Amino acid sequence: MRKQLLLSSFCTLSAMCAIAQKAPKPYGALPSKAQLSWHEMEMYCIIHFGVDTYTDKEWGYGDEDPKLINPVKFDAGQIVGAAKAGGFKGIVVVAKHHDGLCLWPTQTTPHNISQSTWKGGKGDMVKAYQLACQTLGMQMGLYCSPWDRNSAYYGKPEYVEIYRRQLKELYSRYGKLFISWHDGANGGDGYYGGAREVRKIDRTTYYGWDSTWAITRKMQPDATIFGDVGPDVRWVGNEEGYAGETCWATYDPEAPDVGKQPANGYSKYELATEGTLNGKHWMPAECDVSLRPGWFYHASQNSQVKSPYKLLNLYYNSVGRGANLDLGLSPNPQGLLNPEDVTSLQKFGQVLKQTFATNLAAGATLTASNVRAKSSKSFGPQNLFDKSRYTYWATDDQVTNPQLTLTLAGKKTFNVIRLRENIKLGQRIRAFAVEAWMDGSWKEIASATSIGANRLIRLPQNITTNKVRLKITESPVCIALSDFGLYKEPIHLTAPVIKRDISGNVSIATGAPVSAIHYTLNGSLPNLRSPVYIKPISLPAGGLVKALAIDGNQQSEVSTRQFNLSKGDWKVIIGQNAARTRAPFAIDDDPNTIWSTLQSDTTQQFLPAELVININRAADLKGFTYLPRQDKKTAGLVDQYAFFTSNDGENWQQVAQGEFSNIKSNPIEQIVEFKQQVNVRFVKFKALHVINGNGATAAEIGLIEK
């Protein structure tokens, strides 16, 4: 018996060795264990809460009083639970933002949560999130801003040591982390202990990133490190939540200036959207985007929470392109997510779960043009349906353009295709196509490039067929495909589109005819009892419009649009350095046209730049809006402004001055409310400083009436 057992063990070991010898060789850069775990997460949320929640800003200046923070209903469980309901696997807590206030009782600076009103200074928000994650089975990461606009030492060597001590505190106090998140915003104006000055740093050397990251490696060995240049996870290069249609998991960062070393805040970030084909580093992309337009809570954005199907679209364009989705959550001053935010997350989670509940390709008869070493078990296509990311269909080394035919178990209707590679062997496939048997012949229904950890294709229409064919059209080496799926996204009505012309007339429409469109103007949610849209609604003074499409038993998501004062009667009075022919573009209600004072003569600065507007009637104003250019260019983006009002166009009163924080990365409409309401006929927008360029630009200037 013992001899038989030994013989059996020897045969099993020999067979395993034989299979291992036949496995494809890894190709290119490969992921670490921590990176594999990160890929498997697919989605997590980053939580912004702090003094900006109370000052209605995106970036604090550093001089804010910690006593502002008093979230009397703070509930980490509610926030983390909402993320979990949305299908997210973890959270990243912003433990310190650029304003420098630490949300844990740190020993490194008095500017921390112990000086707040909340819990009499005895609270620890980071600990609360840690406990909530443990209770709900969620993973946790931390973000401690490298830039600190409060510290008197920022820009000096002493600050780097302070920053590293903060990281050590966070790494040692709050359990196992899945990610350490590092922002690229570094250096600029700030409070700096009362100095109130601009401090610039050498971004390639100041933080000594190699030494700083070594702390992470030692204290949190299972955590990935995120930054503009990784080293484990790269910023995708935008804050809109999408990766490139082609997106490589490999990436070689480049500095803006030849011969310089790239670093956080100092890289050609636009290259990160697509990555680097055959790059030296496995450095997949994270797509960060907020559930609301801004990262921090703003009451004015309560009606602008992204809908469940908007989130689903972001999922396809991030996770569906091999990246991960990092969704920003913004607790309100009470310390809770608003009901709108919670509802959107819950419904998104439900749609996602329903879509991917059943793989319609499972159970199909599979015919592969090639199977590696003719082994139907070790490398056969049946491995595509076992739900493992690391068992796979592989071909012989010389076969790089195989085909796989699936004869389905009867006719199936689907509109989503999913493919995955076994990324333990690298990212190998460069292009593929999918065909369906329709009307007696093969017809191509989809094609794409990179696959990597995940590739989702959302088809524009339903496909009904009993046969599907996958064709690998480009691969430098044999394939190692781990997943092939066909899925059906639930049927839903398209949400209505709400528009307003320059005269103030609001129209509501859907892409396809529906039984009725119901709307409200009082902020309430529309229902069957709400007015039915029949003709354009006159709304020259602005207001909040919500609309719902209904067809039979189906209801669409609710669309919401907030309109400001109509610009139909406005006239531009040319101001200092304003480009005469382009000035009207700032008030034409077209986000694709821009007012610009940029000039070809780069030796001069055409700043400050002014735009004066006659609104042709007396209006009670409570604020204004600035929409930056929407063409993804940064020249002329205004980040510091002043705003003036007048009743005669000659005598002016300044009613606002400040900065548009983070506008380069997140060029959304900026809303500025005045300290008190003013009755005026003329307004003046003055651009004091721009991100780059010698002049200012604006897509739209708007006014908010009481």
Compact overview of the structure:
By secondary structure, the chain is an alpha+beta fold.
Structure overview:
The chain is an alpha+beta fold and 706 residues long. The strands form seven sheets. An eight-stranded parallel barrel has the order 1-2-3-4-7-8-9-10, surrounded by five helices. Strands 11, 12, 13, 14, 15, 16 and 17 form a seven-stranded antiparallel sheet that branches. Helix 6 (157-173) packs parallel to helix 7 (209-219) and helix 8 (308-318) packs across helix 9 (339-355). The longest helix has 21 residues, at 2-22. The chain is globular, with a radius of gyration of 28 Å. The termini are far apart.
Structural class: alpha+beta
Residue share in β-strands? 25-35%
Low-confidence stretches: 1-21, 576-580
What is the topology, as strand order, of the major beta sheet?
A: 1-2-3-4-7-8-9-10
Average of per-residue pLDDT values: 93
Topology:
Blueprint: H1 2-22, H2 33-41, E1 43-47, H3 52-55, H4 76-85, E2 90-96, H5 125-136, E3 139-144, H6 157-173, E4 179-181, E5 188-190, E6 197-199, H7 209-219, E7 224-227, E8 233-235, E9 285-290, H8 308-318, E10 324-329, H9 339-355, E11 365-368, E12 393-394, E13 403-421, E14 431-438, E15 441-448, E16 455-474, E17 480-487, E18 497-500, E19 505-509, E20 516-520, E21 537-538, E22 543-551, E23 554-555, E24 559-563, E25 571-574, E26 595-596, E27 609-627, E28 638-646, E29 653-659, E30 670-690, E31 697-698, E32 700-705
Parallel strand pairs: 1-2, 1-10, 2-3, 3-4, 4-7, 7-8, 8-9, 9-10
Antiparallel strand pairs: 5-6, 11-13, 12-17, 13-16, 13-17, 14-15, 14-16, 18-19, 19-21, 20-22, 22-23, 22-24, 25-27, 26-31, 27-30, 27-32, 28-29, 28-30
